[in-house]
Amino acid sequence: MNKKQMRHILDVIEDMFPDAHCELNHSNPFELTVAVLLSAQCTDETVNKVTADLFRKYTRPEDYLSVPVEELEQDIRRIGLFRNKAANIQKLCRMLLDVYDGEVPRTREELVQLPGVGRKTANVVMSNAFGEPAIAVDTHVERVSKRLGAAAPDDSVLEVERKLMKLVPREAWTLTHHRLIFFGRYHCKAQNPGCAVCPLLDGCKEGKRRMKPPRIRKDKASTQSIGRKG
Question: Signal peptide: which range, if any (predicted)?
């Protein structure tokens, strides 16, 4: 794929989802970091339901450390892996207080040192909280990129990110991330993609495969039977 083809894809997706944005509710970098940490293997919709109460109860790193981890577990128990995430939130808050004066750091190198924060989470925080261009490759971005040919089927998450960064101007990285997520979340779904009405079907090998009519297999016994009757 070249940059012109990628530009076409993003223009089409923009027409489909002109308001693509971060759907995790937050009011500051700290809340966003916690929300993204909670979103691993969980929908943004569920995270937003949980954080509606969570962010009223806990507003600072100190607040999360003022309760037993078991209480925090109960506060987020509707979210998958809630025990592990509760422990990581408290470890993250302790590190923020001990190393960063209670503030979320702004660089990827510092963010990925925080417990529970990987490269994807760091990219989301950098781009949405601090305005630093970044492409966070989640399952939607990875799936769409591979289906549309921006990345190879066997590329790692990091390879997908690097290829997208080469195909898209730096100033458009964050918006590209949001558009690909919306396209994957609401149209090019993992199980039931909207191939029949997809404006990008011509460039999608997966879509073309799905849209092929099923091959009708002739029953060998029936064919032989018909032949004998003749």
Answer: none
pLDDT in tens, 137-164: 999 999 999 999 999 999 999 999 999 9
pLDDT digits (tens, 9 = 90+) for 91-104: 999 999 999 999 99
Instruction: Please say if 189 is a catalytic residue.
Output: no
CATH of the domain at 169: 1.10.340.30
Please tell me the pTM assigned to this model: 0.86
120 is catalytic: yes
The structural domain count of the chain equals: 1
Q: Which of 11, 15, 44, 120 is catalytic?
A: 120
Residue 185 phi/psi, 5-degree rounding, is: -75, -35
Residue 229 lies in a domain: no
Q: For residue 14, give its domain range.
A: 1-194
